[in-house]
Here is the input.
Amino acid sequence: MKILVALSGGIDSSTVAHMLHSQGHELVGVRLALWSDPSAPALAEILPSKCCNAQTAARTQFVAKQLGIPLHIVNLENEFKHNVVDRFLDDYRKGLTPNPCIGCNMTIKFGKLLELMRRFGCERLATGHYVRVAKERLPPACGQDTDGRERTLLLEAADRAKDQSYYLYGLTQEQLGSAIFPLGSMRKSDVYALAKTFGIPFDEHYRESQDLCFFPEKSPREFLKRHLKESLRPGTIVRRNGTVVGMHEGLSLYTVGQRRGLRIGGLKIPLEVVAKNPLHNQLIVEERGQERTHSVRLKELRWIAWRPEENSTVPFECRTRSLSPRLRGSITLGNEEASFAFDAPAPPQAPGQSLVMYRGEEVVGGGVIT
Here is the structure.
């Protein structure tokens, strides 16, 4: 089979290429050149955990030469800036806490890469994501998909600690049906062992790709300060009773649930951000664990293989962070939006983050918290 392999230069995608090559597949490698912040300080060092650094670029070239496969460097800076970075900044201007990796997977990694798969005459797209897929014929009772056609299900990875299914809930049937995930049934330790066997270069200090890739710092705070200067207005940090406990540097720099970096001195009780008040430019904090959430509203709903009927209430487990503990609750669907009610009071939830629903190990779908 002719397969397009997405090569980031990390150990995971490099191991995928070796695995598929050893199985006799014809491979075409692609590395994406994405936008990175040109206004970052000149001396800012790209963290080892970033995927777009000189080391990963060199490893990509090495693996392609090692396997004797063609490697295409495809410049998607403009598309990435428009579809991912600009939306990321716009959401922060609105006081939200977006998850750009989810949008990137939909529009770039499984959007543009599928276009490249077809352009290079490949049958499948392979990535190093830790997820699994399965095929299922849906029975008539599964909602709107009643024709019995085979559908592709998205499943959690075997290695739950490395599972990335949360980030892929927005993929379509076409995208999932065209992709293969060779690492989905493997443990991370097994991947490292294979990488050594294949002679993929990495040292004992190697750190896998994490954090957002389009700025050099670990957290987005400095990036936001560079690009949202016009909307960052200092204001007060207050308790629910109106007591002022500190000053903030701009609401966009904080997120609901945040506990560190509030710079509130003189208080012995631990505080967390529970809400923002844009009208009065106030950041609202309360004692950690004091405020709980009973339900959230969702927009931009996406369903993978099936969806519940409108005006129905269906129980699911969910996550509101990629590897956070699952929470039980029920979703009630309207025409365009929905609400998710938690069975037990949950911590404060950040608008802009995604709530992803699970049925056992299957990822059913999700939506953005409003």
